[in-house]
Every structure is written in structure tokens, then in C-alpha cells.
């Protein structure tokens, strides 16, 4: 080896060592992640999961990095918290705010509670929160009972056992409930199960397309969106049928709610305001300022009204329907839990008793089971995005204003540090007043942007479950594939079939 070659070799070795040291230190100073590739980030790793629609499994896999992790898609970084204490802090602290999700909500819900942040979000939430007060919760119970009883009557027309695609039936119930309680309209979705309507078919198709689009948005670099038809314009086009349907409801409500010269909330006392508006539903509160009422807290724009109604319709039906489907899938695979749950219902309600809201509160094992379903298989696995108002240290790393950080719900709710036998479906863990570690159980989120309708969702899911389990035994149809899948939300594979049999015949 001559001197020149030796010099080049030494320079190459030293350069390689320095580069390795630099990148090693750089990686040590960064939030841990899988290998991040230039331009595409973690897309190679993500694609292995998204090909199977199993994004939820990727989220769970990031728990291997400890309290905090991240993944990158293109130039977009997402930081995930796997730590309960820090999750509670960022969700509850006034030093953290919702983040502007920008393109993630474009064309879908930019102008809704999901898309808004800061003071605008606070004003919207304050204006809409009363639509989920005691009177509306009582109505949610009544409408859940009514729609479930209607479905039971359809099912009783079958002789012997019968097979149903349960998610479609649960979606029909939850759409009818949200329609009557939040929108003031009878949508007739349960009735359309036996006699499919044009609106029902359009809604089902467009909601499925939207879920797929949102999953692709999560895992595709922004520069590819125009080529993959993921832009805001594409989203509006894909949901135009549903938006037209909801716009017709808004127009009817606006025509019926003429408040011009009739209401001036600014001159009323708090008790008078409450009495005047207590029965207003979501749409009433959205359009009151445009219908002539004076003194309302917020006068919503047409775009805000459209997006808010769209989000309440989507989020208020899909999440509960998927949770109920998950419940029955878990009961079918855990028959001892099913039998214990039916015994609990029988001992309080009886085989032919009439369910009331007071009796519902006595079904303690049902409450334990529903909580465990939402811990074991949450349907919303990455929704609570926050950003600090000032540079803040989280798990030893500096997070700057504008950086998005989210709670990794499924990872925290399966963490053995907080849960005994976390991978076991075990409703009994919730008995005897069990309280989980703060921040370790967040199926509805927490803080300023927790689910505004969570109490309604809890009443609805428990009412539907109690009435169906009072009347039927359930099992999964043999020979079919059963797996979890993630689009916009996480649930079971489409078309999953259940076999129901009337308990009266047993």
C-alpha cells in the first residue's frame, strides 16, 4: 500500500467513524423510533401494516421504545406517548392546547370541534355542550330503547337461529339515535335494514370510502395526496351525498326554528336561559344565531354548521356501533363472560322485564364489561393530539409549540405497568370500585377535547347491549375470518357474521 492509498484509507476510516458517531449521537438525542428513511420516513415499516389495514398493530409495536416514541411519514412527524402520567399531564394541563391538524382534516371537518383549536374550539364547545345535558341523556336512553326494540321485533320474525352482519345493524341503531337526539330527525335507518332506502345505501357507501381515505392520509406523504385522490376536494366529493342529506335536515330545522324577535338571551338570567334552551338539540344550537335569536354565545358560519353536523353524525354513530360489535365479538369468544353477563341482566331485569334508566344503572357487571371492551379494544387509537404553548420537556425530550404529540391509547391501555394481565379480557378487574392509574384509561380522551358525547355513548351502548342480551344468545359464525382492522377507527373486519338465537326458545 503506497502512502497516498494509506492516507485515503485513513481519511475514509476516520470519516466513517466520525459519521457513525455523529448519527449515533443524533439518534440518541432524538425521540426513539424505527429507522427513518430519507423522504419517506417510516413508510417502509408502515406499509407492512397498512397493506393489511392493521395500523393499530403498528401503534402497539411502538410501545417497545418505552414512554415516548415517534414515527415519520414524509416530512410529517408524529410523537406518541406511551406513559400514563405524561398523558394525563398533556391532556389536562392548561399549558397544552389542541393542535391545528391542517391537512389531516381538510375537506372533512376543518370547521368542527375535531378540527378547531384554541379559543374558537373553546367557544364552540361551550355553545354545544348543553346539547348533551340531563334532558338529552334521558332522551338518548329512550331512543336507544326504541330503536333496539324495533330491531328485536325484526329479528323475532326469524324462526330458530339466524345470521346477521352485526355492524350494519348497530350502525342503523346508532344513526337513528343520533338523528333523533342530536339532529331532531327520524332517519329510519333501522327500518331500512329490512327495506333498504336510497339514503341508507348512499350513507353506508360514502362513510366506508371516507374511512379508507382517512387511513391512507395517515400513512401517505402529503406530496402524494393529489395523485392518490386524498385532497380536501377529493374528500368533499366522496362525502357529497351525505352532506346533501344532512343539509336538507338543516334547512328543515332552520325553517321550523324562527326565533326572530322572540328570544334575546342577553336579557335573561342564567336560570331563564337554561329553561328557554334546555331542549335545544345540536342543530338548534348551531342555527339559533342564524334563525334570529339574539345574545347567543356563537353565531356559526354555514361552513361550521355543515362540518359540525357532519362530525356529530359520523362520530356519534360509528364509534358506538363499532364498540357494540366489538362487545359481541368478545362475548362470542368468551362464553363464560356472556353467561355471567346474561345472569346479571336476568337477576335485575328478568327475561321479560322492562328496562328503565334506573334499572340500567343497577347492571354493574354490564358496566364492568363495557369498560373492559373499551380498554381491551379501543376504537379510537390515536386522536388526542396536543401541542405545548411554550417549549416543554416530556419524558426527557424537548417538545416545541407546533409539534404534534398524541396519546397512544391502545399501548397505554395494554401496559403491564398499569394493568394486571393486560392482554386478558377480564371484566372483573373493574369490580369493587377499581380505579385505574390516572392517564392509563382514555378511550374517550380527557381534558379540553375529550369526547363531548361520551355520557350519551355510554348510555346508548349499555342500553342496546342489555336489551339484546336479555333476548338473544350470540356466537360467531364458524369458518369465517375474524380479525381486527383499522381505517378511520379500529374494529373487526367488514362483513363479520354473527349467529343469534332467541333465549325464549332455550
UniProtKB/TrEMBL annotation:
From the record, give the transmembrane residue ranges: 309-332
**Does the keyword Repeat belong to this entry?**
no
- GO terms for molecular function, please? heme binding; iron ion binding; monooxygenase activity; oxidoreductase activity, acting on paired donors, with incorporation or reduction of molecular oxygen
Domain of life of the organism encoding this protein: Eukaryota
Q: Which cofactor does it need?
A: heme
The cross-references to InterPro entries, in alphabetical order and at most eight, read: Cyt_P450, Cyt_P450_E_grp-I, Cyt_P450_sf, Cytochrome_P450_monoxygenase
Q: Which amino acid positions bind heme, per UniProt?
A: 451
Pfam family name, one = p450
Q: CDD domains of this UniProt entry?
A: cytochrome_P450
Q: Which key words are in the record?
A: Heme, Iron, Membrane, Metal-binding, Transmembrane, Transmembrane helix
- Provide the family line: Belongs to the cytochrome P450 family.
Protein name (Swiss-Prot/TrEMBL): Cytochrome P450
- Originating organism: Synchytrium microbalum
Cite the source lineage.
Eukaryota, Fungi, Fungi incertae sedis, Chytridiomycota, Chytridiomycota incertae sedis
Amino acid at each position: 500500500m503506497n502512502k497516498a492509498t494509506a492516507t485515503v484509507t485513513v481519511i475514509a476510516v476516520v470519516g466513517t467513524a466520525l459519521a457513525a458517531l455523529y448519527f449515533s449521537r443524533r439518534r440518541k438525542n432524538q425521540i426513539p423510533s424505527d429507522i427513518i428513511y430519507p423522504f419517506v420516513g417510516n413508510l417502509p415499516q408502515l406499509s407492512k401494516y397498512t397493506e393489511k389495514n392493521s395500523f393499530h398493530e403498528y401503534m402497539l409495536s411502538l410501545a417497545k421504545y418505552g414512554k415516548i416514541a415517534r414515527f415519520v411519514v414524509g416530512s410529517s412527524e408524529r410523537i406518541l406517548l406511551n406513559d400514563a402520567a405524561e398523558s394525563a399531564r398533556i391532556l389536562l394541563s392548561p399549558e397544552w392546547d389542541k393542535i391545528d391538524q391542517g391537512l389531516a382534516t381538510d375537506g372533512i371537518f376543518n370547521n368542527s370541534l375535531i378540527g378547531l383549536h384554541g379559543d374558537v374550539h373553546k367557544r364552540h364547545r361551550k355553545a354545544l355542550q348543553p346539547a348533551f345535558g340531563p334532558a338529552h341523556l334521558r332522551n338518548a336512553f329512550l331512543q336507544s330503547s326504541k330503536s333496539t326494540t324495533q330491531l328485536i321485533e325484526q329479528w323475532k320474525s326469524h324462526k330458530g337461529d339466524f345470521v346477521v352482519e352485526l355492524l350494519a345493524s348497530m350502525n342503523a341503531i346508532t344513526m337513528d339515535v343520533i338523528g333523533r337526539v342530536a339532529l331532531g330527525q327520524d332517519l329510519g335507518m333501522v327500518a331500512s335494514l329490512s327495506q333498504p332506502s336510497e339514503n341508507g345505501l348512499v350513507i353506508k357507501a360514502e362513510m366506508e370510502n371516507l374511512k379508507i381515505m382517512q387511513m391512507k392520509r395517515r400513512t401517505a406523504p402529503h406530496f402524494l395526496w393529489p395523485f392518490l385522490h386524498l385532497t380536501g376536494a377529493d374528500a368533499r366529493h366522496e362525502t357529497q351525498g351525505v352532506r346533501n342529506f344532512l343539509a336538507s335536515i338543516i334547512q328543515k330545522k332552520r325553517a321550523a326554528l324562527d326565533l326572530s324577535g322572540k328570544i334575546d338571551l342577553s336579557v335573561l338570567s342564567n336560570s331563564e336561559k337554561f329553561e328557554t334552551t334546555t331542549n335545544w338539540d345540536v342543530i338548534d344550537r348551531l342555527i339559533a344565531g342564524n334563525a334570529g335569536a339574539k345574545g347567543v354565545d356563537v353565531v356559526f358560519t354555514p361552513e361550521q354548521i355543515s362540518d359540525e353536523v357532519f362530525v356529530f353524525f359520523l362520530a356519534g354513530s360509528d364509534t358506538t356501533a363499532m364498540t357494540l360489535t366489538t362487545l359481541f365479538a368478545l362475548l362470542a369468544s368468551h362464553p363464560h363472560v356472556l353467561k355471567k353477563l346474561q345472569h346479571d341482566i336476568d337477576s335485575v331485569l328478568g327475561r321479560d322485564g322492562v328496562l328503565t334508566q334506573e334499572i340500567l344503572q343497577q347492571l354493574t357487571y354490564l358496566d364492568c364489561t363495557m369498560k373492559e371492551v373499551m380498554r381491551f379494544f379501543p376504537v379510537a387509537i390515536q386522536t388526542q393530539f396536543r401541542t405545548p404553548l411554550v417549549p416543554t420537556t416530556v419524558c426527557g425530550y424537548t417538545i416545541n409549540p407546533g409539534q404534534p404529540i398524541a396519546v397512544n391509547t391502545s399501548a397505554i391501555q395494554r401496559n403491564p405497568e398499569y394493568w394486571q394481565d393486560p392482554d386478558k379480557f377480564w371484566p372483573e378487574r373493574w369490580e369493587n370500585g377499581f380505579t385505574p392509574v390516572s392517564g392509563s384509561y382514555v378511550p374517550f380522551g380527557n381534558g379540553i377535547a375529550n369526547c363531548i358525547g361520551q355520557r350519551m355513548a355510554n348510555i346508548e351502548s349499555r342500553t342496546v347491549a342489555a336489551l339484546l342480551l336479555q333476548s338473544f344468545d350470540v356466537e360467531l359464525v364458524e369458518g369465517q375470518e375474524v380479525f381486527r382492522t383499522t381505517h378511520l377507527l379500529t374494529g373487526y373486519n367488514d362483513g363479520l357474521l354473527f349467529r343469534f338465537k332467541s333465549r325464549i326458545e332455550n
